[in-house]
Structure formats: structure tokens, C-alpha cells
Design goal:
Blueprint lengths: L21 H44 L3 H20 L7 H11 L5 E8 L4 E8 L2 H13 L3 E11 L5 E9 L2
Antiparallel strand pairs: 1-2, 2-4, 3-4
Length: 176
């Protein structure tokens, strides 16, 4: 038995059947799972689009109802209420009713006030008005200077309008 090759006596086994049945089934199962996943995603996206379009229509309907004079009136009231609440919560609020009553008592009969402006930050007051003659402007200026309500009063403008009436503007510091 010299020189005998033992390896050739054993017949070789071929690997068969590893792809014959299992491979196509697995590929088919994966394909159908992917197809089901894709279909489910398309259904979910369509459902979300429908919900989104319903919500958009609801928002547009509500927005159309929230327009007009009624809403402007409510917004204006809310702004005034906010301002009034803010002024009430301040430590040193200005009593505008008292201030205007005192200002009204200082106006002489021949003078008509046309504008009153109060600058809270600068503590200044601008009073504009009109009268017939410069004499009444001077008298009004002396009345304002004689009261403790205002200090450092100066005349900002003084002119005669087309009707012949004298228009004036006083600026003063507010004493509170």
C-alpha cells in the first residue's frame, strides 16, 4: 500500500439545496413586508393630510369670525383695561380727574383749550388753546404761573390763525 492516496477514496459531497427552497421564500417574505410597510405609511400620511386639512379649514373659519368691528371693540376695551390696571398698580399714579378739574378751574372765560398733553416720564404738561386777543393769552399765562400745579411755564408757540384768533401753546413742569 505504498503510495496510496487515501483522500481520493472518500467521495466528495456537493452542497446542494442551500438556495433552492429557502432563499426565494425569504426574499418573497421580505418583499411583501416592505410592500405592507410602504402601504401602511401611505395610509398614515393620507390620514394626517386629512386631519391637517380639517384643522386648517377650522382655523380659517374661526379667523373669518374674528374680524370686524365687534372684535376691534373688544381689543380696544382690552387695551384700555390693561392700561387702567397698569396705572392702578403704580406706586404714585396721577389722578387725572383731579388734575383736569384743577386745570378747568384755572382757565379764564375768554380762553378755549384745544389740547392737553401730559408726559409722565418728563413730568411735563403741554396746554394748547385759542383766544381773541394777546391780552387773554397773557392773563392765562399769569393764572397758570400763580397756581402751584405748574412750574417753569414757558410759551412754546404763539400765532394768529386765518380767522384772526390767537393760538398758543404753553409747556410747563407738573408739580405733584
Amino acid at each position: 500500500m505504498i503510495g496510496m492516496n487515501l483522500s481520493s477514496s472518500v467521495p466528495e459531497k456537493k452542497q446542494e439545496g442551500s438556495w433552492t427552497f429557502g432563499g426565494p421564500v425569504i426574499v418573497t417574505v421580505i418583499f411583501f413586508l416592505l410592500l405592507a410597510f410602504w402601504g401602511g405609511m401611505q395610509w398614515y400620511l393620507n390620514t394626517l393630510d386629512k386631519i391637517l386639512s380639517e384643522q386648517q379649514a377650522l382655523l380659517e373659519e374661526n379667523a373669518s369670525r374674528l374680524k370686524g368691528d365687534a372684535v376691534d371693540r373688544v381689543a380696544s376695551f382690552d387695551a384700555r383695561l390693561t392700561l387702567a390696571t397698569k396705572q392702578m398698580n403704580e406706586e404714585d399714579p396721577v389722578d387725572t380727574g383731579k388734575l383736569l378739574n384743577q386745570l378747568e378751574s384755572l382757565v379764564i372765560p375768554n380762553v378755549k383749550l384745544t389740547k392737553y398733553e401730559f408726559d409722565k416720564n418728563g413730568k411735563s404738561v403741554i396746554v394748547e388753546g385759542e383766544t381773541d386777543t394777546f391780552k387773554y393769552v397773557a392773563q392765562q399765562l399769569f393764572v397758570f404761573k400763580g397756581d402751584a400745579l405748574f412750574s417753569n411755564i414757558r410759551v412754546d408757540s404763539l400765532k394768529k390763525n386765518l380767522e384772526g384768533r390767537i393760538e398758543f401753546s404753553f409747556k410747563a413742569e407738573f408739580n405733584k
